[in-house]
Amino acid sequence: MNPVDDFPFLTNRAPESHKGDYGHALLIAGSYGKMGAAVLAARACLRAGAGLLTVHVPRRGVDIMQVAVPEAMVSVDDDDCCFSSLPANLERYDAVAVGPGLGTDDRTANALHVLLQTLQEEYAGRVRLLLDADALNLLAQHPEWLHLAGGAIFTPHVKEYQRLFADADPQTMADLHDLVIVKKAHHTTVYAPKAVPCVNGTGNAGMATAGSGDVLTGIGLGLLAQSVAYPRRHPSHFSVQSVAALAVYLHGAAGDKAAERLSQPSLMASDIIESLPQCIR
Q1: How far apart are CA 250 and CA 240, in angstroms?
Q2: Quick count: other Cβ atoms within 10 Å of Cβ 177?
Q3: Which residue, 41, 133, 147, 246, is the most exposed by fewest CB within 10 angstroms?
Q4: Rg (Cα) of the chain, in Å, rounded?
Q5: Domains annotated on the chain, with CATH
Q6: Sign of the CA dihedral 259, 262, 267, 269?
Q7: Of residues 52, 49, 76, the one with CA closest to residue 65
Q8: CA dihedral for 185, 165, 171, 113, sign (positive or negative)
Q9: Nearest alpha-carbon partner for 101 in 61, 59, 128, 148
Q10: Could you give the CA distance from residue 83 to residue 43 in angstroms, rounded to a whole number?
């Protein structure tokens, strides 16, 4: 059975629906010299079906984002080069993803800390959160902040996981910290508190390429936003683990489609995004 069939916001859109029915996603990403990661994640988010996307970027990244992803709205950081200030009106968003191309500047660390505190204290249970890449590296530098990320999805590759949790068992860490951990590997596994891990069977070695993880973050963000917004008009519930597992499945399936078309050695992250519609329809 195709797991997409369990998510009606992807398979059964009502003719009278509007973009607000499919969620408003916030992506906090990019820094000077690393705007490509933000662009890839943004494009993947919209391809995954999010109704609205706002991307929070440094001032120098605004032109890049608005030209590369004209469908996205842009929130402008106070700093020219890095994430240093929170976007306004966080209550507008259904899901937030932080990390692709973010950098690990001290100003970024401080902003991440304030963001986690704000989401935990003011929006817990209302806004779903995904942390990837440098957001995870900053948490590894500040493990005392982990309690502020309860309920979030983490998407670490092997080295990011080791920085965060050393050699600890991922199921134990998911239980202890109330996290959904997407441990990326040859067979990516999704761990959730007190739940059976989900082992993914899609994907190929061609996806071991720059930007592939940013695409997964974007897909996950797009699905998270929809999973929050859709139940407002249609009685339904989507667990965070099931959404994370679907994101991993679609990411790998799109990578398989792209590799069939282009070959594994020639695969680029943007090819995964372009193949995503074949896996959703």
Answers
A1: 15
A2: 19
A3: 147
A4: 17
A5: 19-280 (3.40.1190.20)
A6: negative
A7: 76
A8: negative
A9: 61
A10: 20
Rounded to 10 deg, the angle between the 170-177 and 158-165 helix axes is 60
Place of tokens 């959904």: 180
Helix, strand, coil: what percent of the chain each, to 5?
A: 50, 10, 35
Which segments of the chain are extended strands (E)? 24-28, 52-57, 73-76, 95-98, 128-131, 153-154, 180-183, 189-191, 198-199
- Beginning with the edge strand found earlier in the chain, give each strand of the sheet holding 52-57 in spatial order: 73-76, 52-57, 24-28, 95-98, 128-131, 153-154, 180-183, 189-191, 198-199
DSSP state of 103: -
| Token pair 């959404």: residue | 243
Two structure tokens written together for 137: 């590296």
> In angstroms, rounded to a whole number, what is the distance separating the alpha carbons of residues 48 and 280?
8
Structure tokens at 272: 């995964």
Q: Which residues have CB under 8 Å from 84's CB, separation 6+?
A: 58, 77, 78, 105, 107, 108, 110, 111
Structure tokens at 152: 């979030």
- Tell me the per-residue pLDDT of 74-88, one tens digit each, with 9 for 90 and over: 999 999 999 999 999
Tokens 């398989």 sit on residue: 256
Helix and strand numbers, DSSP H then E, in the chain: 10, 9
Backbone angles phi and psi of 121, in degrees to 5 = -85, -30
Question: How many Cβ atoms sit within 10 Å of the Cβ of residue 74?
Answer: 18
Rounded Cα gap, residues 97 and 270, in angstroms: 19
Please, what is the average pLDDT of the chain? 97
Tokens of 226: 């929809």
Q: How far is residue 97's CA from residue 220's CA, in Å, rounded to a whole number?
A: 8
Using CA atoms, how far residue 58 sits from 63, 64, 196, 198, in Å, is: 10, 10, 40, 36
Write out the two tokens for 146: 């982990």
